[in-house]
Amino acid sequence: MKRRFLSYVIGFAMAIGLLGGCSGGQVSDEAVAKSDFHYRLARNYYNDRNLAMAQRELHDALEFNPQNPSALHLRGFIQMGLKKLEEAAESFAQALLAKPDFYEARNNLGAVRMAQGRYDEAVRVIEPLAQEPLYPTPWFAHGNLGRCYHQLGNLDQARRYLEMSVFLNPRYCLGFNHLGIVHVDRGNLRDATEVFKKAIKTCPKFQEPHFHLGVIQQRTNRLADADASFATCEELAPDSSMGKRCSIRR
Hints:
This protein has helices at residues 2-8, 12-16, 29-47, 51-64, 69-81, 85-98, 103-115, 119-130, 138-151, 155-168, 173-185, 189-202, 207-219, 223-236, 241-249. It is mainly α. The two termini are 22 Å apart.
């Protein structure tokens, strides 16, 4: 579950280094500059995994400029990591109000709603990103929409969005993995097998596709192949929950 949750927001660490503050409302240029200074300090503390100091600097940044979108976004990301999901959603929503084309904030707001099980709302939040030509990582949006529709029971829509996610990024292994799960739920084990194999070929150390492939191989009475898949899965991370599941299936 933790890995899937992180997958919703992957790309943030790269994006955060590129973001700068911008102002809105009646905030003086001096206050904007001070807010940006404290935001940059907070970003550096966050990159060093010093969350206490990062949050302190974010507090100061938002005291000077309550509409600093980068500071609001980083605050939301930290809150999300601390499982304060509703607070994180509020921070991301405020960042979007301050900067409507803040694509990372929109994606992460959608990720929070997914983590809360509010999939209809997540679809409404994320769907504009799938149509946005300037969004630099559209496969995340399509992948998250595919997972939302899967949870909502719309397997056709889930398949379409996930197929688009891996078309846009042929190395998006999470997209392949979730697409394989959708094929399984549709009863299409042949396509599921091909997709899980693509995930494994692209990301050999990605554990979960090995498990799903092994389950299919067991269901189709290819027991030697299944044992090999589960063995690889277990070897990749024997102490993980997935590794233990693979060990039990052998």
